[in-house]
Specification:
- The protein is built from twelve helices and two strands, in the order αααααβαααβαααα.
- Helix 1 crosses helix 3, helix 3 crosses helix 5 and helix 6 (124-151) packs antiparallel against helix 8.
- With 273 residues, the chain is mostly helical.
- The protein has helices spanning 3-25, 28-31, 36-66, 80-97, 99-109, 124-151, 153-158, 182-198, 203-219, 234-243, 254-259, 265-272, and strands spanning 115-116, 201-202.
- It starts with a helix and ends with a helix.
Length: 273
Amino acid sequence: MERADYLHNFVEETDWYNDIVLTALLPDWAWQPLPRPIRAWLRNYIGGTLLYFVSGFLWCFYIYYLKRNVYVPKDAIPSNHAMLLQIKVAMKAMPWYCALPTLSEFMVESGWTRCYSSVSEVGWPLYIIYLVIYLVTCEFGIYWMHRELHDIKPLYKHLHATHHIYNKQNTLSPFAGLAFHPLDGILQAVPHVICLFLVPTHFMTHIALLFIEAVWTANIHDCIHGKIWPVMGAGYHTIHHTTYRHNYGHYTIWMDWMFGTLRDPEEDVNKVK
């Protein structure tokens, strides 16, 4: 297959994503005349915003109302005012967040990355191996990006401090998951894009992982310790928001364990006892 024909597979795939989101929600005249990158950005913005609100509202409804006092004590439930402020910060940043997947799509469609369009091109065993390498590389990159946002004082002061105003259980909620300074949120997602140049990556899986971030970050800000080893769940991340010096990892505890920044919520509970 000619290179141009192969790259067209990615174009057809992103056109399909446009059809799923834009055709369903907007009249054709509102988006089809737009330049291709603007269409991609618009689709990412609408999809990301819907995912943020749907996952946030459903999760808050479940843990704060349906299971009130089961997972979170009544005095630890964040106020509606606190959650509205988090939503406001996230919505200001969302247009900028969506620039990153738009850029990654452009680079993939231009043939600059190591993406492939179909699992059949490599087979399932290699797909799984590449996915594990991708996730480990992302975990390493996000750990160090997050840690440097704390260690480099100007970065913390001007970027990451926006997120760390939520530093107690009764100020954290699923809506805090995307409440970052726009550049902060982009920097912490950049390892996903860097991996496209290092690891053969299934394009649809890459896009899915970028949007799963919205669900994952909602989960780790709900203050509910899931106790699923080695997942870096909300119990670990709540400690990060209260000590500022521990648990920088994203999906797992391994990077914190390797680099000496792990603090286990179970050990904290035992100390209190």
